[in-house]
Amino acid sequence: MDKKINVTRPSMPSFDEYAAEIKSIWDSAMLTNFGPLEERLKGELEKFLGVKNLPLFTNGHQALLAAISVIALPGKSKVITTPFTFASTTEAIAGAGLKPVFADVDPVTYTLDPKKVEKLIDEDTAAIIPVHVYGNVCDTGAFEKLSEKYRIPVIYDAAHCFGVRKDGVGIGNFGTASMFSFHATKAFNTIEGGAAAVPEKYAQAVRNFANYGLCGGATPEINGTNSKMTEFQAAMGLCNLRHIGEVTEKRAAICAKYTEILTEGSFFDAATGVSGNGIKLLPYQAGVTKNYAYFPVIFGKAESDGSFTPGDQERLVKVIENLQNINVFPRRYFYPLISEFTCMKKYRPRKTPIAKGLSDNVLCLPLYAELSLRDAARIAKTVLR
Ligand code: T4K
Questions:
Q1: 20 to 30 Å CA-CA from 25: which of 3, 95, 198, 347?
Q2: In angstroms, what is the span from residue 278 Cα to ligand 1's centroid?
Q3: Is residue 253 a part of any domain in this protein?
Q4: How many A from CA of 8 to the centre of ligand 1?
Q5: Quick check: CB of 184 below 6 Å from ligand 1?
Q6: CA dist., res. 237 & res. 226, Å (int)
Q7: In the chain, pLDDT over 70 holds for what percent of residues?
């Protein structure tokens, strides 16, 4: 039996490196509540991500909830967002007491379509929450224009976008705020963890939100929760950050191997990711430095002019079966669409056919630094066959 290969496997430092990093916790006896390691990691991440204010959280979901709670326009009830994402995005909106309104996505990048968003903006719109899904960068220019025109904050879910830059600018600088996830399954992890890149005027309130809204005194000025990052999480982050360059290079090499084999023997349009082999891969985005967080494959019909229609469930099911037969477990991120969840029915979601086509036909292949190129080749050949 081949060894089991999951969709991902966390990058970890050596045991000795982590043990050395957590040793100081036994001297300080600070386990949590904004301890010295959390403070150090915050500073190092601000530098690495090229952002000024990055309050850290126990997970990305809580960071998004904090950003929405502090930044969304008060007295308004709706947030326009994408249904093609992980449950967290919509649950953070609902958790902040707001109603998610779903707009469709762009067929090439799978990110929220600003033109479709504009049609849904009304006087009740409290915020727009696009997602840089799989590390594909949203149309930040168009969202900036919408934000200025309607005076609505844009809060990016950048859970998949750790370390991504656009035209040399850290992705956390776009929009009003951006949330990052440092979950074990992400390109960079603090075991669980997350952060919100926010402008100065919101920085203290967002940080306080993680500590019941307390601002040093005994009486909170805002409602909050308890979502502070612990010292053990911060220590893992400090170690993992030392190796991020090497981890990203390994991920890039695996993506290159997948791409090489999956597009063999037919045309491949890198700009759209469409290959004549009946698949669409992530598109190339000019000026964007990737982090190689995910490797989604969409199955469907490719035309020689580069157009692509998602839709080949028979093949998708067969591929999953064949991969499982060699002990490989890809995942259908993100199927079903969030708007199809039973708990979303109460919001009466509108139809989003592009997102639906992607969701029904997507498969994320295993991607993590320790995956060998030999295994990647074996997986890609199985998909092609
Ligand atoms: N927004 C977006 C767009 C997101 O994708 C996410 C999280 C969030 C917001 C929220 O951020 P966080 O609050 O999580 O920081 C996983 C992750 O739990 C989740 O963080 C992630 N997105 C989502 C896409 O995937 P599952 O339920 O698929 O994870 P699980 O436990 O099935 O793990 C997948 C594979 O990874 C397993 O086959 C085994 C392997 N694994 C997993 C863990 C946790 C390990 O080898 N070691 C581990 O410690 O949700």
A1: 198
A2: 28
A3: yes
A4: 9
A5: yes
A6: 20
A7: 100
Cα–Cα distance, 300 to 35 (Å, whole number)? 50
Q: Which atom of ligand 1 is nearest to the CA of 191?
A: 49
pLDDT digits (tens, 9 = 90+) for 241-286: 999 999 999 999 999 999 999 999 999 999 999 999 999 999 999 9
Domains: count for the chain: 2
Phi first, then psi: give them for residue 339, nearest 5 degrees: -65, -10
pTM above 0.85, yes or no: yes
Segment 47-51 shows an average pLDDT of 98
With a cut of 70, say whether residue 1 has pLDDT above it: no
CA Rg value for the chain: 21
What tokens were used for 41?
A: 């990691």
Report the CATH number at residue 272.
3.90.1150
> Looking at this protein, which amino acid is placed at residue 349?
P
| Structure-block tokens of residue 291 | 């982090």
Same domain, 52 and 130: yes
Closest CA to 192 of 220, 233, 160, 227: 233
Question: Is 343 exposed, middle or buried (CB count within 10 Å of its CB: 0-12, 13-18, 19+)?
Answer: exposed
DSSP reduced 3-state for 16: helix
- How many beta carbons lie within 10 A of that of residue 192, not counting itself? 19
24 lines ligand 1 (CB under 6 A): no
Q: Which amino acid is at 271?
A: A
Write down which residue in 242, 257, 277 finishes a domain: 242
The rounded Å distance from CA 263 to ligand 1 centre is 28
| Burial bucket for residue 176 (CB in 10 Å: 0-12, 13-18, 19+) | buried
